[in-house]
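@channel sequence for tomorrow's demo:
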Amino acid sequence: MTVPLIDATDLVALLDLTPDLSFDDQERRAVLLENRSCDINAAPGSGKTTVLAAKLLMLSRRWTSSRAGVCVLSHTKVARDEIKSRLATSHDGSRLLTHPHFIGTIHAMVNQFLALPYLRSNGMTVDVIDDDIFARRILALANADFSLRRYMEMNAGVAPMLEGLIYKGAFLDLASEFGSPPKPGAKTLPTIAGIKGKLAAEGVFRHADMFAYAERLLTLFPKVRTQLSRRFPIVFIDEMQDTSWEQERLLQLMFDETVTVQRFGDINQRILGSSEGAENLTFPCGDVLPISSSKRFGPHIARSVSRTQLTGTAVTGEGEDRHASMLIVYSTERVQDVISTFGVHVLDRFSDNDLTSGKVKALCARKKGDAQKQIAGRTLLDYWPASGGDESPGAKLVRFWALLVGTKPAVNASFSSRFEEIRRALFLVLRAAKAEIVEGLKTDHQLIRKLRDADLDVSAFRLLIRDLCMKNMSGEDEATCIRIVNFLYVRMRPLLPEHMSPQIFAALPVFERPEAKAIHGAHRSMCSIEKNGRSLDIHIGTLASMKGETHLATLVMESLGHPSRRFDLQLALPIIAGIGTRSGKMPETQLSQFRNLYVGMSRPTSFLCLAVNAERVSDECKTALVDQGWTITHLL
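structure tokens (generated this afternoon):
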């Protein structure tokens, strides 16, 4: 079919469809009215996903075909859900949520239209597509084989290689996402290929396997490309900068030149895609349409963000400047005071109402690194040692109660995620009780299937999970916990060992509750601050874990690059301060650190804070920042 053209009359209609949004500026209007294949490079906080949703709303008004549809591909479920929720607000828009249209992730598209049909048409079952489950299953098989177990014991890189084992390309070549399999002729290769094949026969795959099966289908049956192109004459791709070369190459195989393809992204935020084949990536290309203004922050933050930008039109800020940015200059001895100092300044600047409606987060580009001794500030572990894992004795003890109480409710929170938390909590209880039903299970994902296979009452177990999901679990007093444990014993009795009495059940270590201070000390991703009777929870994590988020206030802590061996803020602060320039011959390893800073510094709406070791910032740089409106706080 011929894709309907969007014109100025559709922009007038858009005012009624989206009265809460404005698309008056020239850049956004140009994107909305573009009907050809093109690339759109959009600044952080520019609302590119909202612009895309608005374009889909206009397109839906003119769409007439019941056999051909619009295809919208995203990298994240968050972006997908944002688009769907916007479309659902109107009758015309809601039509794009049904057949023949498709709105989902690239992986979902590949699975639904290519990989799963190929596997099923060849008589293969698909039990689970999950990287973590695959990793656990393949290590279990490898450890059961004497030669592979010895191979892993002698070489630390073998286990990760096995965990990442995938099929690649149309001929299903054996490869790994974490290393390389043994070369042809190696004694262990047939065994490794055999266990990969065994898992495939059982229907256990990694996500990357689906791309190989999809490519195989397209290679064996070239007409599938023509059929897909007729089904989806127009394709929109969100977050294109995070598309790997493998994904882009597959998209090129899926759609022919008759398809209109519009790709949205920000090349300066490319931090997640695989580096393999990155030199072949084509985004952005041609006459790129920019959306350079950010609605997230004001001119003050925008000026700093734009100085870490590598290419494209400089970011400008349309938001309000509420607070000056701050630089925390810390001595090595006080590196672990950085986050709490940031928290105190946040409490000083924002009301309780502000803090309720906005997130406050602290991030670092790297979580952990090598053991080489360096000045503090290399990774997140230097600032927040608790982020290293479950080393603390309290961490495992608090796990059950943390799952049962769950995370703080969020707007539009998924009930399915709460279901998974409760299922995991019950799995921990059954494992602690040494219940027969969990023997051999490494994860809760297979628990309900195991109940079904054992011909046990699955509906009663699901009902228990539902009841726990609906209960108010916020109480933490001793009496409440006793009631919960007694309730669980009654409802789970058919699954527990015959000899287990209520007293033995209640004494299981899984129910132990550390003191509040121990729980706080063991928390891997939260720092709680109190001042003058007011409190604040600061979420802590890596840059990658917070990509795409919007915060009220953000702390970006310096990190040591790998393999550049340079500290990111030491490189960037003179440029941010306006007294230095970036070398045109800067290596890619350092350019990637600038992209990380660009992403991290563009998260906050109101307060940006950076942290640098005192030995890595000059007095000249600090003076220049103060002249541009920054404040400096010393921890010496």
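heads up for whoever presents: The chain has four domains: 8-105+228-290, 131-205, 299-389+527-635, 393-517.
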